[in-house]
Prior knowledge:
Blueprint: H1 2-9, H2 13-33, H3 43-78, H4 82-85, H5 90-113, H6 117-127, H7 142-159, H8 163-181, H9 188-194, H10 201-204, H11 225-229, H12 256-261
Amino acid sequence: MNTVVEYFQNISSLTRALIIAGGLTVFWLIESAIPLFTFQYNKWKHAGINIFFTLTTIMVNFAFALLIVFTSSWCVREHFGILQWIRMHLWLQLIIGLMILDFVGAWFIHYIQHKIKWMWKFHIIHHSDMHVDTTTANRHHPGESVFRAAFTWLAILICGAPMWLVFLYQTLSVVLAQFNHANIKMNRRLDKFLSYAIVTPNMHRIHHHYVRPETDTNFGNVFPFWDKLFGTYCKTPVENIHYGLDVLEGRNDEDVKDLLKIPFGDSVKTDY
Length: 272
């Protein structure tokens, strides 16, 4: 356990970038070999659009980096937050910390973006993708990236997470998001087995179905039990999934300028 702490305490930005790029490459190759859906699209052009939004997400996260590092250091120094108030073994600190970071910084912000109309208009860009694959994982409007970064900061403050735990969670979060968005045809028994511990592709792709109620289900990013706990879990057969949103039908899901303007216009209904 001390080895894990030391590794993520000292992990470099380059190593983190290589992990992200490596995960994207691995899942890209797997979904190219055994795709669930055979899309008729230009995979490279599609990836270019989503990588653009990935870069804007990185820029937003970089802008928040100093605040996040300062907050984590302050929590440890001033003994603030759940992990700092209660003495516990490192393994328990790891589990509780990951759960809080995932619930507040991923599940809860995702959930409320579906419930607050003006936030939903930013989140629409993620759901606009008609060809969900591993590159869709970081297809977020820069405004949504700000929401997510702000809730990551809030999660760190609540649990008093040290930086090694923050880096560990962020690494898991990115790689698992790439995994559960990947267009991979998985053995159903394997998917079901994995779904007891992590969010799997068959679980998450239901969330990208183009109409309710499926669109408002399976919000999880790392852990699957939040949806089961709060009644937002759905088991729609993957064969019935149709990606996108009905309110965006007829629009080009690869027009970056149009996608960036959607939250600020009135051309898209907030009630879907």
